[in-house]
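Help! Submission page says 'invalid entity' but I think these are all valid:
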Amino acid sequence: MRLLLLLALLVSLSEAKLTVAVSYPYIASIAKTIGGDKLTVETLAQGSWDPHFVVPKPSLIGRLRSADLIIINGADLESGWLPPLLTRASNGNLNNPANVLDLSKKVKLIDIPTDTGRAGGDVHADGNPHFHLDPHNIPVLAEAITLFLSQKDPANAPLYRGNLAAFKSLWSTNLKRWDSTMAPLRGTSVIQYHPVFNYFLRAYGLKSLATIEPLAGIPPSSGHTMKLIGIIAAEKPLCIMHDVYHSTKTGEFLHDKTGIKLLLMPHDVGSLETIDTISALFDALTKRLQ
Amino acid sequence: MKKLLFSTAAAVSLMAETTELETLKTQMVHMQQTLQSMHEKINALESSNAQETPPSEILPLTGPNNGTLSNLDFSLILDTSYVNRSQKEERLSALNTPGFVKSPLSESPYNPSNGFNLNYAEVALHSVVDPYLDADVVFHVAEGGVEIEEGYLTSRNLPYNLRIRGGKLLSEFGRINAQHHHAWNFSDLPLVYRSFLGHEKLKENGVQFQWIAPTEPYLMFGIEALQGSNYASFGTTPITNSYDGSTLASSPAKPSLIVGYAKTSMDIAESTLLAGASVVRGESRIDFADSDPAFSGKSTLYGVDFTLKHYFDSYSSLSWQSEWLYRTMEGRQFSDNGSALLDELSGRKQAGFYTELVYAPDQTWRFGTRYDSIYHNALSVEGVDRHLPGSMEQISAMIEYHTSEFARYRFEYAHSNALFTTAGERQPLDSFIFSVNLAIGKHTAHSF
């Protein structure tokens, strides 16, 4: 009888799948790779939209309602939309800091402002939060996610570690390919709309010459655009790396005036239809620049 | 002999204990060594990670992560306006909507005067108290003084998606009731809200329970027990006879209001629908200061709200928001006929709505229009119908310009025919309001 009970308990334990809510699709991609079928992943933001301005739809409260854990990007990227959703979801699990993984704490942030005054635009006080765009950071994030999941679900820890090992070996092959694709571009410079690609550029020795927005979060102005035309003419940057969520109007104008290439670059999984995994994201980023 | 045996036994057991102690000690040393080696491995891993990241070539790393250390979130919102109305304040203060309590625009906390207004500096503080509670306090600092707009505690870890909030709070009755002034799409309150709930809306001391149902789509239920001080529909002050000082109606048992609501939401492609039904019921004690005749009885206010928002992309959207309110009041009314107080049976059935459409083509501009109406306004005294104006309307239009997420400039025009003199003469009112709203401090999060 006891044995039966124990068995029943074991069965129920092994079937109790963890549910983890994640803020952005890139986190979902990594978490699914590590968690396999032992993990239910609820993604909040849509990859094709501005990560700073996620619409706090009430349906997202439903995705937070029954989650056991939450993995966030951090570095203030979610501060404009996630807190009210969490308050609404009334999910005690997610209000416990032990069940929150903040990925920004696991990597080194760049672009930390010395002056966080908003005279410089809407700057992120902790530094540039788009760190997942350095492909070298991905294994670090995957490791952090594996550790986090293993702590919360020790029964499946060996599986998570196995998946991590497979992911890392695949990733290092990918990294070599991307490194060699990007090597010839070292030293060249680009224009961006918002400094979303700084980690990617830094990883491959490219230079961000200027941004189409005059200051973070401030829409393009004609004066600044005229200045950009001058910069493009003088410095001959490789291209405009344009994110998919801002209007390309000013970018097209710059292209017409100077002939500079205007490239639509994905920033997250799901930002373009073909980008369905995190490695597809870097495949596209490296290919499009060629 | 026995003694010897005993002492040997004791010695043996002691020796056994010492050996046990020693094994324990060696185990501990082992554990320490393993810990040490693990520590070293972690250190090695960390430093190798640090080495893996390529050297900074574009932007140098500046200092350590020095995010705010304080666990108190602070934000300040400043709202100022320039107002030009077609009626002067002294005249405006005597204009009201018949069938409803006196709630003149000149007494509104927002945009009361022609010319310049400093409406408020809203100071909001938020912090986690302990693992069980969050605290929020919102002060409205205005020229008249400091008011606690809201101040409440919220539970953090109740099971089953339950949440309790207690303190001074904006009820989540309807849609716009829980929103602060700076979150409204227009600078003045919809006519139905001002008429049914007054300038302060349903803002009360009380306690709120909410539950998120485990369903797809989103479904939330809430009930609230509130003190009942709302002057426009409820109130708790006793009503006295000015002739003999006798009590016409004593104060009700407090808390005197009960609020209930259900809200649901679903996504259809890039559109989101949010709908709710609400009811608030309680005792009414409306004094002569707020209404002539005064009223004592029971009132029920029903609300249905409906919001449909379509997103074209991250920055542009079209939003249609409407709310319908219906009020019934049953009780006695007291009026002064010049020599004595009349005490009569009184019943009211009143209904109205607002509907607004806001289009945001980008982050810089927003355009909106609103139509307000009170279309049903029935008052019967001793079973006899008093003929109150049954059709009162207001139309508004606004244009907003945002220099950033933190600064909003809004130009608004409104035409109202809902105001009447005490003699019952309709007085049209045209208002121009230019308002500036600035947000500083902690990044304020947006609700849907």
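Support: the input was valid. A stray whitespace character was the problem, and the output above is from the cleaned input. The domain at 184-288 of chain A is CATH 3.40.50.1980 (Rossmann fold).
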